[in-house]
Amino acid sequence: MSQTVLITSPTHFTQVLASSRIVVADFYADWCGPCKAIAPVYEQLSSQLSRPGTITFTKINTDNQKDIAQTYNITAMPTFMIFKAGRETKRIRGADPKALDAAVKQLAQEAGKADEDGGAGSAGEGSSSGGMWMGVATPRNYSDITDSVDKLGLDFLNLDGEKGDKRTIFESSRPSALAGKGAAGGKEDWIESDTDEQLMLYIPFQASLKLHSLHITSIPSNSSADDDEDDETPMRPKTLKLYTNRSHILGFDEADDVPATQEIEIKPTDWDAKTGTAKVELRFVKFQNISSLVVFVVDGEGVGEKTRIDRVRLIGETGEKRAMGKLEKIGDEQGE
């Protein structure tokens, strides 16, 4: 008997993503020849590898579930997507049995290893398999939606240009500082403020989001314990002011005159001792249908002159994305 789950609504798909560590999604259409050709391969993988709560195979009819197809920008049939902890990790366009088989079996092997180790990410540092790192566990029923950030539209003020590129804080990799050393190749994978402790981050999104929380990682250098060098050690962010749905970045003076959507103080006890990550809870009702977020780091925790951010993860739900355009059949004709 097939164990594949036929998705009946966006809410249904969200529930499946939240209830299974790995989710494989087959976006198909009844009129698509390549979809029909690869369907037996997909069903065989589902029968062999499905495991409740660990690996779930789903099928999504793009004609019946247009909202889901638009959310994930599905533009060709068939498209297979693989999610880990609710976040997309791989996308396969076309009827490519070898690629699909290899990708799914690799994930099944990783899931088996995680089970042997007692699971990953239940507390403290999250799983880094597949290149995705989480500083703290994702709350139940919500997903990591950081891949919705429009990195080309990012705009930061008072950023030290000699440190890491501003896009680096949205990377899914484990921060190099957790290894006690700088990033590989000497390229720093974090950002710091420049002339003082304040930072202004303008973060646009590719889709309308519902934000539940922010996970902010900050790993100040502890290479010296000398008191006279404390003021040279970058600080962790302390006071944040958040502004939603702005069309551009705010100036520092302008931010003082604009009411914040929410003001937050991160306490020293909020930082996870192992990963240097703080979970910033948001007033969820105020963060619905968000197209952009401005994060104003007002000050830092300590006596330093600069603040540092290694990673930012966005947790919540994705909404409507830009128009997906005309669907096309692909697959059989892709052979070399």
Q: From the alpha-carbon coordinates, what is the Rg to the nearest angstrom?
A: 22 Å
CATH classification, class level of the largest domain: Mainly Beta
Overall number of strands? 17
In the CATH classification, which architecture of the largest domain applies? Sandwich
Decide which structural class fits the backbone.
alpha+beta
Report the principal-axis shape: elongated
Report how far apart the termini are.
Answer: 35 Å
Strand content: 25-35%
Largest sheet: 8 strands, antiparallel
Helicity level: 10-25%
Q: What fold name goes in the CATH topology slot of the largest domain?
A: Jelly Rolls
- CATH H-level superfamily of the largest domain: PITH domain
Mean pLDDT: 83
The number of helical segments is: 5
Structural domain tally: 2
User: Low-confidence spans: pLDDT under 50, at least 5 residues?
Assistant: 116-123, 127-131, 223-229, 322-326, 331-336
The helix/strand order is EHEHEHEEEHEEEEEHEEEEEE
Put the structure in a nutshell.
The protein contains five helices and 17 strands.
Summarize this structure as a short list of keywords or feature phrases.
336 residues, alpha+beta, Glutaredoxin, Jelly Rolls, 2 domains, 8-stranded antiparallel beta sheet, 5-stranded mixed beta sheet, 5 helices
Folded structure, characterized:
There is one protein chain. The protein has about 325 residues and is an alpha+beta fold. The chain has helices at about 10-20, 35-50, 65-70, 95-115, 250-255; strands spanning about 5, 20-30, 55-60, 75, 80-85, 85-95, 145, 155, 190, 200-215, 235-245, 260-265, 275-280, 290-300, 310, 310-320, 330. It has two domains: about 5-120, Glutaredoxin, CATH 3.40.30; about 130-320, Jelly Rolls (Sandwich), CATH 2.60.120. It is built from five helices and 17 strands. A hairpin with a 2-residue loop joins strand 5 and strand 6.
